[in-house]
Amino acid sequence: MLEADVEVDRREFTVRAALSVAPGERLALFGPSGAGKTTLLEAIAGLVRPTRGCVTLTDRVLTSTEPPRVTLPPWQRRVGLLRQDPGLFPHLSVRQNLSYAPGTDPAGDELTQLADALGIGELLAAMPARLSGGQAHRVALGRLLLAHCDALLLDEPYTGLDSSLRRVLTELVAGLVAARSVPAVLVAHELSDAQAFADRLAILDAGCLLQAGAPDQVVLRPASRRVAELVGYLGFVPVRPGPGDGMVAAAGSQIVAGIHPERVRPGSHPGLGLVLAGTVTASRPAGAGWEADLQVAGVVLTCRLPDRPAAVGSTAVVTALQPPSFGPDGAALEGPAATAGPRQVRA
Amino acid sequence: MPVAAAGLIWLALLGPVIALVTHLSWSAVLSALEAPGALDPLVVSVTSGAVTLAVLLLLGTPLAWMLARGALPFPRVWEAGVLCSLLLPPLVIGLLLIFMVGPFTPIGELLGTLHLSATNTFLALVIAEVYESAPYYVLGAQAAFSEVDPRLEQQAELLGDRPRRVFRRVTLPLAAPGLAMALAVAWARAMGAFGAVVIIAYHPFGIPLQIWTSLQETGLASALPFALVLLVVALPLPLAAYTWSARARGRRRG
Q1: What is the pTM of this model?
Q2: Does A79 touch chain B if contact means CB atoms closer than 8 Å?
Q3: Could you give the number of structural domains in chain B?
Q4: Which residue in A196, A242, A202 sits closest to A218, CA to CA?
């Protein structure tokens, strides 16, 4: 079990976060650039010294600012960190990189078998400069696994790789984390990467953990308007209670419903959610469908639709599927409560 | 136009070497070098140069590494100290060294109690050569260490290496081509050191002083063979370092 409860001072704000990751579990930290995700990983890895807090891994205390104070140096932590830059040693061959950790046999069966499993068995004599981005990441991952780390930290490792390669590597890492039963923490600023990897998703913003939970629940039931914004809700329509349990759009209301562009269906389906009628202000092709901007109750919403929407200026009706709603303070009106303080959420 | 300008400056820089080769009489070289004691300055220069390099490696390398990693407080002050001996004219360095380590200074008196002297001795020659070559080595080594990505060192630590082992397995091999070049330049400066040497270490004679005295006493023709000796001794190490650095970088490119 990896447990961290730390505060790290940064120039702009203090990162305050608490998380627990069980062996074999995969936690994704998602948030905007500069939210403090990497700082949190570096505090766990021992590269940054927290001003307060404690980090433990299985039964070992890695950091403790309370007496007896403990600060294990990085080389004693057995924590593997994989960054966007694979960090291969350029003067060493792939085999030498893989066997870099003390005690790793460069000619051993474990290295050969792992290299084959990672699809780099044919590259053992190559120098890192000859490798593609995906191959370099596989070597870096193999190097961490051969070091027998007790925890795996992944800091946006797939940024810059194409989507199919990201999917392959994500599945590979997920399988290896489960097989080796080590806790793993992924930092991502692409929600799809975080969702594809994680058992649990935690949202970090300006140094604070805002919400943690199952990836689908965090996206479908954001705890606050800020979380909703971070996970892709692009429009917030003022609403008031309507007939039955439903809601209706109402300009000027203090309560808003969050509209996710991908959680919208064309037409009126009152049983499925919030029915919105608005004026089409723009439309454009998006992937296999269309994206349209609708003006509803004084705000502009973006919706993804399977078919070409009505012409600009005409009226369109869509249904937002079970949209979350937020009060004047930004907190969700149902589901998990929004955080009142920075230390209330634990991932 | 740029090609012509580049060619012109390249030829101008190479001109002295071409002039040396075209004006040398090989019979004069042989007769000069066969004279009794003619090779003594060569031995002095090579041994003092080797000791100078050892001093630079031992004392200059940690300073260069700490400068590159920002591990020193007030780094600009430290860099200014290194630049000081680069910016001061060598003759001035020689004069000031007399006031620093001469026989009537506290350091000179301390050396005297150890039966050593820092004027007109082998020690004085090494001190003068260190002053003339140290900034070239320290600044070159600093640049070489700066080129090593600190995240690679972090990665090595996370994989279980202690800092000393990281330095040996990652930092040093990656900085080695740059360090070799810095050392080679320092060697060439030490072998050719003259300004400070002529003030503080007129004896024992190294090759630069041999060239100077030959020029003063018997003219240009008799100085040229020793100029050739100086080039032959001073240049192979830089050339070898350059070749090795290029190969090392090429190997990394696969």
Answers
A1: 0.81
A2: yes
A3: 1
A4: A202
